[in-house]
Amino acid sequence: MIPERFGAHRFWSQHGRDLAMLALIALAIVVCFADVLFLPYTFYYQDIQFLHYPGKIHFTQTLREGNYGFWNPYIFAGYPLQAEPEVGPLYPFNALFFLPVPPYYAQTLFVVLHYVMAGAFTFLLSRRLRLSRAGSVIAALVYACSGYMMAQLTNFSILTASIWLPLILLLFSIALDRLSYGYAIATGVVIALFILTAHPQFILLTLTVLALYYLYHIAYLLKPDGSAGAPPARRGWIALKYSILLLLAVAIGVALAAPQLFPAYQLKSLSVLSESLGFDFVTSYSLSPYRMASFLIPNFLGNQAIGYRGPAFYEEHHNYIGILPLVLAALAWARRREKAVFFFGLLLILSVALSWGRLLPIYHLIAYAPLYNLFRVPARWLYPMTMALAMLAGFGFDHLLDDSLGQSARVRRLARVLLALAAVLTVTLPWVFVFKQQIMDLTGWFVDNIYPSYAVFTLRSLVKAFVRFPDPPSSNFLLHVVPFMLNPLLHFLVALDTSAALLYLFVSGRIRARWFSAAAIVLIAFDLFLVSGSAINPVAPAAYFDRRESTAYLQEHIGLHRIYPTNQDGDPNYNLGHYFPMIDQIPSFGGSSSLTIRWAQDYRDAARQNPRLYDLASVKYVLEESAAPPAGFSGPLREVFSSEAIHIWENPNVMPRAFIVHEAAAFTGNSYLYDPTFPFDRKVVLDDPSALERLTPIEPALLSRSEESGEDTAEITRYSYNDVTIECETAAPGFLVLTDSFYPGWEATVDGQPERIYQADHIFRAVFLPAGQHVVTFHFAQPVFWWGVIVAALVVIGILAAWVVSCARRRRAGIPSPTAS
User: Fold this and answer.
1) pLDDT interval class at 1 (50, 70, 90)
2) Which of 774, 771, 737, 772 is nearest to 757 (CA)?
3) Residues with Cβ < 8 Å from 607, sequence gap 6 or more?
4) Which end of the chain has fewer beta carbons closer than 10 Å to its terminal beta carbon, N or C?
5) Comparing C-alpha atoms, which of 201, 150, 528 is closest to residue 379?
6) 347 with 381: CB under 8 angstroms?
7) In terms of Cα–Cα distance, which of 406, 522, 397, 403 is closest to 135?
8) Please, what sign has the CA dihedral across residues 512, 517, 522, 528?
9) How far apart are CA 444 and CA 423, in angstroms?
10) Distance (Å) of CA 739 to CA 76, 600, 802
């Protein structure tokens, strides 16, 4: 017991202060989200309700039922949801949704935990790079509570991806410093965790930053004074080792994430994004340099909680890190000779430039570079830019605290200039309240008669914003205490004045370093909390996701038919758009995804011109917000449910989910989809011309008698996520058509014997049936997932084997503990 006590005491003496700082960061995040943690509110906005919350609920339900939902029958007439990377079905932290708490609160815990981890990982990286504890806390708060991270709260696949970058850099930096295979493997494990939750574009961005970090170390190594003056041969060996460590980390990460990556790659190759859509697509939603005014004045265009008046998308273009952190980041330039500072400085410059997208000439090349040409929104380079700014703020803070620089004339001069600037702006800017109309008239004349400059448009937006006093969000504690801080001008002036005054008081020796550190942390936290959490992300009462009366009606009457919402982007509680039907397990022909399967998109486009395709897709109920009957369907619809929010109309021409036909044609193009007279109830179009040979000529009298007597029957007796069983009877050979989406990985048997599945009517499935009674089963085997499992398992076995061999060698060598390899 004594050694254990001594070891624990030594651990706390060495790391106790760091642990206390980590606890402080966690507490700060909890305070930031206090309203949703301690009051019955929930985040719901945009992709949360459309995609992420339904996805988490769906996979939790399937696992509780003991039937993992590789296939989702509730959207797109069926969709391989496990292959959808943005849902993150294999992400371990989804386990929070199994807690005995309401799902909305599990989602809140999921969100808050990831912001805590973002701060903790950034703190640990900062300490690794020799920042002080106070500087590390500042870096952690700036990254975790930055405008970009907080604005991405509505997109879990971006939020949960962004938090892992500091930990990846931390582990990889140790691997490079120690030339350690063990830490390279640990980096790979974290990369795998990150891939399991990340938006695909953020996988690319993160691996790009990791590659830049590696290249920077290679360049630093090859400098004349690099690697402590090691001889060229030694440097070459170290450079080779660096390369091996990078390849090992990335390879292990990709291999361990193979159960997610393999299905995702298959889905992407079959989706509408299988090819690049060109320069205009790749550069869409570039960051306007004038939009960067929000780096100083965060709410000058509003935000999602109080109303946003700027160009799409707010969450992609917003990045406020606070006034004081910007000053500190600028001060870090004085330490540019330090290896880490120079790297993050270069990363900052590169990220800002690339975020401008179409304004950067080199983007004409990037738009056609493999992988990079598959993604839009160059503004997402704000993600590594935020990491760079956070780290530079920490370095700048430590530069300020350095005793040898504390009396620097240059720093004192900067503090006096900043204080003077704050005083001038504080005296002059409030005159906007008096001369707003004159400024607007003058700038309007300039736009109309001289030049329609974006700078002038930005100035006009600022002037409009400076006189607004929005109402604070209903749940936010802090903004109800200081509601005037929602005014962009007052927020800017208060943040600027307090930052300038605090900096001046410190460099002039009027306050000590300890008090300055505490005051700086409090000021940064206060400034960022004003534009964090529910201050910029709308919340709703916890009952927001409760089942509506209209949903209950559909659950009672839908059976195996489908719904179709005419407004995918309306309130999903009523319209059941996007992925929302998964929550209540209501089959839908709706849905929206950047990875929509190509043939499904073709079919839906055709249905807008040929309403018979909705009948064929078994659409029984149409959801419409207005009281007017929905247009664009094959016959008059009958209203069966009405409320203020939604109207449900029944389609009398709906066809069954499964039926038998005795005529077939080979696919020769999509023109038949646009033919309203095509007899889909009697004839099927198949993807393989050889399938037609299986239909023996049928005597017309036999076929007519079979159709008239109703001898052809197809009854679905079992329907689950991955399995369908249909009992059939037919008097003549034919094809069983199941109007569920065709997709690789589905297998079928007829009376226990394997049978090929044909792609039918462009989107659905069909199997051949001889005359007689049959039991047909469909099973979604998802073989690419299991291939991914095999690859991941082999890698795990290899890692364990390498660890056993390493331990054995160390024991023989008498080395007590494996700290590096």
Assistant:
1) very low
2) 737
3) 613, 614, 617
4) N
5) 201
6) no
7) 397
8) positive
9) 29
10) 11, 12, 50
Q: Is pLDDT above 90 for 451? A: no
User: How far is it, in rounded angstroms, from Cα 803 to Cα 182?
Assistant: 9
Q: Provide the token pair at 108.
A: 């809140």
599: which residues sit within 8 A by CB, 6+ positions away?
742, 759, 762, 763
Which H helix or E strand runs over 72?
Answer: none
Which residues make beta-bridge pairs with 671? none
The winner for highest mean pLDDT among 68-82, 111-125, 395-409, 544-558 is 111-125
Q: Which two tokens stand for residue 529?
A: 């909390």
pLDDT given at position 457: 76
CA 164 to chain centre: 13
Task: Mention every residue, 6+ apart, whose C-beta is less than 8 A from residue 242.
Answer: 176, 214, 217, 218, 221
Cβ pair 774, 728 in contact under 8 A: yes
Residue 79 gets which letter from DSSP? B
Cβ atoms < 10 Å from Cβ of 291: 23
Instruction: Kindly report the number of other CB atoms within 10 A of residue 89's CB atom.
Output: 24
N residues, the chain: 821
Joined tokens for residue 338 = 């330090």
Please say if the pLDDT value at position 819 is more than 50.
no
- DSSP label at residue 519: H
Dihedral sign, CA of 6, 127, 242, 202? positive
Mean pLDDT calculated for residue range 186-192: 97
Give the whole-angstrom CA distance, residue 393 versus residue 749. 63
The backbone torsions φ and ψ at residue 660, rounded to the nearest 5 degrees and listed phi first, read -115, 135
Biggest alpha carbon–alpha carbon distance for the chain: 105
Residue with tokens 């700078």: 455
Asked if 652 contacts 561 with a C-beta cutoff of 8 angstroms, the reply is no
Q: Could you give phi then psi for residue 641, rounded to 5 degrees?
A: -150, 140
Q: Assess contact for 386 and 321: CB atoms under 8 A.
A: yes
Q: 201-214, pLDDT tens digit by residue?
A: 999 999 999 999 99
Mean pLDDT of all residues in 795-819 = 80
Copy the structure tokens of residue 476. Answer: 């936010």
At 2 the pLDDT is 40
Q: Read off the tokens for 419.
A: 């204080």
pLDDT recorded at residue 455:
76
CA dihedral for 110, 115, 304, 469, sign (positive or negative): positive
What is the torsional sign of CA 799, 805, 809, 814? positive
| Owner of token pair 């001069």 | 413
In this predicted structure, the answer to whether residue 7 has a pLDDT above a threshold of 70 is no
Residue 698 has pLDDT above 70, yes or no: no
- Over the stretch 652-665, which tens digit does the pLDDT of each residue have? 999 999 999 999 99
Report the distance separating Cα 600 and Cα 513, nearest Å. 63
The residue-averaged pLDDT of 769-791 equals 94
At 614-665, the pLDDT tens digits run: 999 999 999 999 888 898 898 899 999 999 999 999 999 999 999 999 999 9
pLDDT above 50: residue 320: yes
